[in-house]
Structure formats: structure tokens, C-alpha cells
């Protein structure tokens, strides 16, 4: 990774962790992930791009972002998440300290995989010039909406998530 991409990756990861830890942000992100298939890491990177780099990403650029991380998301992140979720859900695999330990290890691996996805997207962002104007709430709202819309198109269904978009945009704008 170039120095610029490394700096962007570090700043983006710190931003993502900070935003995700805000009250209700993780619940909103997980709702968007569960209900419409939003890639939360890609969403957080898109929000970083608009709020910290002034990039008003177009739907075409959001599709490019998705193409950059899609193989990683589908072949690494999602399988780890499925296994972790199965272990968390209960059933025949959910009892015993060994299972909890394994689930914790898988959760840590999933987080590490998301960090590497962040790095992939940071390399993509490094090739984009910074925006010249600070982003407003409307810019943030539009980018979040475009990421959600792209996920909905991939899933083939549209669910009303306007309140989730508005809440997350407001948190990112503060």
C-alpha cells in the first residue's frame, strides 16, 4: 500500500470505529446489513469519504467501491459472519466453553477481515482527489442512501430504511 493509502486506511479505520461506537450506530448498521444486505465496512468507508475527504461519491463510484471489495466480502467476510452467527444462534453447536472460545476467535477473524476490506477500499480512495468543499448533511444523506440503494438492488428488494439513513447521516455530520 502507498503511504497515502496507508494514511487513509488508518484514518478511515479510526473513523469507522468511532462512528460505529456511537449510541445506536451499530444497531442501525446491523439493521441495514440484515434487512437490505448493506456491507457495513463499505458504508463506513463511503461515509468517511464524504465527511473527511469531501468526496461526493456518485452511484457509479459506489458501484466501483463495491466491485473492489465484493470478492473479499463474499469469499471471506460473509462466510466468517455466517459461521459466527450459527454459533451464536444456539442449537447443537452453541454449548460449552470451547464453542464460546471458537466463536470469539471467529469474531476476531471477522473483524480482521473487515480491517483488510477497509485497506482495500482505502487504496481505491487514495486514487481519488480530495473534494474542495466540506460535505453537508445532505451530501452525507445522499451517499448513505446510494450505498443502501446499491445493496437493495443486489438483494432485489426495497425496504423503507429512511429513518436509519437519516439517523446515521446525522451522527456522521456531528
UniProtKB/TrEMBL annotation:
Pfam families on file: DUF2390
Name of the protein in its database record: Uncharacterized protein (TIGR02444 family)
Superkingdom: Bacteria
Amino acid at each position: 500500500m502507498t503511504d497515502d493509502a496507508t494514511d487513509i486506511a488508518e484514518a478511515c479505520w479510526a473513523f469507522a470505529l468511532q462512528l460505529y461506537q456511537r449510541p445506536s450506530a451499530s444497531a442501525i448498521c446491523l439493521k441495514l446489513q440484515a434487512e437490505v444486505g448493506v456491507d457495513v465496512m463499505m458504508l463506513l468507508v463511503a461515509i468517511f469519504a464524504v465527511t473527511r475527504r469531501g468526496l461526493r461519491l456518485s452511484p457509479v463510484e459506489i458501484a466501483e467501491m463495491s466491485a473492489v471489495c465484493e470478492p473479499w466480502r463474499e469469499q471471506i467476510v460473509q462466510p466468517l459472519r455466517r459461521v459466527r452467527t450459527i454459533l451464536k444462534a444456539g442449537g447443537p453447536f452453541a454449548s460449552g466453553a470451547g464453542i464460546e472460545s471458537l466463536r470469539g476467535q471467529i469474531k476476531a477473524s471477522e473483524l480482521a477481515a473487515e480491517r483488510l476490506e477497509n485497506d482495500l477500499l482505502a487504496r481505491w480512495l487514495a486514487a481519488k482527489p480530495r473534494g474542495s468543499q466540506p460535505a453537508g448533511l445532505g451530501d452525507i444523506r445522499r451517499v448513505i442512501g446510494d450505498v443502501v440503494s446499491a445493496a437493495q438492488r443486489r438483494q432485489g428488494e426495497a425496504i423503507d430504511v429512511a429513518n436509519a439513513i437519516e439517523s446515521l447521516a446525522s451522527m456522521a455530520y456531528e
